[in-house]
Amino acid sequence: MTANTLWILAIGLTSTGMGGAPDYAFRPVPFTAVKIDEGFWHPRFETNRQRTVWYDFQKCEETGRIDNFAKAARRMSGPHRGDPFDDSDVFKVIEGAAYTLALGPDPKLQSYTERLIDTIAAAQEPDGYLYTARTIDPGNPPGRASKERWLNERGALGKGDSHELYNAGHMYEAAAAWFQATGQRTLLDVAIRHADLVAAVWGPAPGQLKIPSGHQEIEIGLIKLYRATGNRKYLDLSKFLLDCRGRRFDDPKAAHNPNPYYADHIPVTEQAEAVGHAVRSAYMYSAMADIAALMEDPDYRRAVDRLWENVVGKKLHLTGGIGASPKGEAFGGNYDLPNASAYNETCAAIAHALWNHRMFLLHGDGKHIDVLERVLYNGFLSGVGMSGDRFFYPNPLETDGRAKFNHGSNERAPWFNCSCCPVNDVRFIPSIAGFIYAARERDLYVNLYVAGSARCDLAGGTIAVRQKTRYPWDGNVLLTLEDVRGAGRFTIKLRIPGWARHQPVPSDLYRYADSHPAGNRLQVNGRDVRLDVENGYASITREWKTGDTLALALPMPVRRVASHPDVQANANRFAIERGPLVYCAEGADNQGKVLDKIFPGPVRLEAEERPDLLGGIVTVKMAGEPEGVSLTCIPYFAWCHRGPNEMRVWFPTRPEIP
After folding, report:
1. Is 420 annotated as catalytic?
2. Fold of 437-507+517-553
């Protein structure tokens, strides 16, 4: 693959734009240039490769999702099964398969996916339309689908959104990934024909539709299609769809009712508070960041900055989860952050991570990686079980063990009728490697501390680096420059996480309720160097050579966390963290009881290595004084692997009135 192909494949981001066009100032080192071969993330990557991708394909077969394409292609008979948006699940697993193949050959996986893509291509209608729920039986489409194309994109028929454009966005993402991973054009050509149809139907000309998408996603997909093809039309269409939101047009084909649920109550460039369905909105914010960079649009840049400040300052759970309200899977009001009823959909965590990565690429500020890291280790990782085939849809911060919060279950489930989360996981996990490093001219950014190696291009040269670390279990990181070729004098920027600088999040939403000396230490080739931090990074500029080392030590005391006083759900409560990990207590470690414990006085906190527990973790023993109340706590991501039981993240300091 070419260098630009690798950038695109990472998450659809290139290093230099299309033909010198504007782009992000900071570029990710793509996951295909990063090898994770040990440490915390390695078994999770392997489980995703060996288990999750095949499991998801199997479930798509069992539930008729794949058969729907065969029926639309007239290779099978029978009615459509499931929901119209189920097409998107198949596209997401194909994207995950593409990422898996980009990391290494797998003939069986490639052959299976090629046959599936052939069926999808056969299901496409002659003018490019592809939507199995309508194609199978145009005269009597099921459920959300409508007899007339696009008519129910915004739920105008009162039976839920059709998701035609949502399906399309995931198809475009899968098509770009498959083309860039394999060089095969079949799915890309399907996506191009479909996108050309959408571009003919939507637009500013009289008679064209000016209705915003029902579920934001096509906006991201079009930008990836632009990157894969170089066709500016797709970038312009993405911005047009965003610009339609919250606006009225003097055109009969533009009639719609602006609605906060869709985040189109006002134009996107005027929005300042995150509202609506959290997945839809965070996908939209990701596309807005892309437009801010690719079109150098200052209004989009200011808007996406305002929205980020609102989320991180007022709508972020400690775990990094967003979308607190089960009603509409939506953002709640400012400081409305409940615990037992917190929704925090896994897909929303993924969308939040993608958005924060783009915000870093836009600004180069470590605060965005601080939020990304919090999401990765907590709000996202809790959503997929260690076996790779059990999943959470919502991710609450408290449960009595009996409430069926997980779409009819009180533990991780093998699948859902709406299985957007399992198929999102399979495409997201391989992309995590693309968050670790970034570059700008002669600056190499080390964003995440993950054991493994990478090859990074800087202006004037190439650097091969290796990280040795047990992070997140301890904060010792050894970075070795294994090969420095022609780079000369350059700067290595090591992120000093907010948690290591007495700031759990980059706002006043949470604070540490205790004090600890920082104790952070940095050595170059065994000699101490001054650790000055700017925008979240310690910078070391010098003539680097092969064999040079950087040793970073970030002490990991256990910390008590308090909320902003306006977060009523956490009044007179505290949480605990160690490094990037949020901890919880669950009944499995505490004689079945957690919710009856109160800690009115001082609390002793002690970390303990437990290689025998849950694949090897660090637990925290919390002992209250003087009453002697105690709890054993585990990382939040690991909870509910031993059956349903009580669980709590925020611990009361006084009796609470029900």
Report:
1. yes
2. Immunoglobulin-like (2.60.40)
